[in-house]
Specification:
Layout (H helix, E strand, L loop, with lengths): L5 H6 L4 E8 L4 E8 L7 H58 L5 H16 L4 E7 L4 E8 L3 H13 L1 H8 L5
Antiparallel strand pairs: 1-2, 3-4
Helix pairs in contact: 2-3
């Protein structure tokens, strides 16, 4: 921060100087006025400058509070968007839960469940594979959006051991 010394002030022609400090909640500073001629500042001028400095202090505080308000509004908008997204996910989850709890026969319920999953997740196909038989092989139990390519993909996943690994490790595979 540059410092002004009396010699510097005289060199630029300053003859009279009044500095009024201020300290707000956050901002601190000094307001200065100078005369380039020899005439002292009287008490009324100094009082006026002090009143102006008080106004400057309040204006800076209002600006700081306005910036703080803007940040809080931005956070509130982000929280609102997150809450709306969560509410949307809950609505989607309820549509799946409603299907599971419905009185549909099992086959119809599974197909309806997979159709809703397809809509919610925005995918082309969905399938349920169940462990069946003495060799614990995975079999396609229900599917939605299934075509020949889907059935081939399920068979390939089974041959490659991907579905078995998902079951054994209890985690998803991307």
């Amino acid at each position: 921060e540059a410092q002004l010394y009396q010699g510097d002030l005289l060199a630029i022609g300053v003859r009279e100087l009044v500095l009024v400090p201020f300290a707000g909640e956050v901002d601190r500073g000094v307001v200065g006025v100078a005369r380039l001629y020899d005439e002292r500042f009287d008490e009324a001028e100094v009082a006026l400058l002090e009143a102006v400095v008080e106004s400057i202090k309040h204006a800076l505080e209002r600006m700081r509070l306005g910036e703080e308000r803007d940040v809080l509004f931005a956070r509130e908008r982000a929280a609102r968007r997150e809450a709306e997204a969560t509410a949307e996910r809950l609505v989607r989850l309820e549509s799946i839960t409603g299907t599971i709890l419905s009185d549909l026969p099992l086959e119809s319920m599974l197909r309806e469940l997979l159709e809703r999953i397809r809509d919610i997740v925005a995918v082309d196909t969905a399938a349920i594979l169940l462990v069946e038989g003495p060799d614990a092989a995975l079999a396609l139990r229900a599917a939605a959006g299934v075509d020949a390519d889907t059935e081939a993909a399920v068979e390939l996943a089974q041959r490659e051991g991907v579905t078995r690994r998902v079951i054994d490790e209890h985690r998803e595979v991307d």
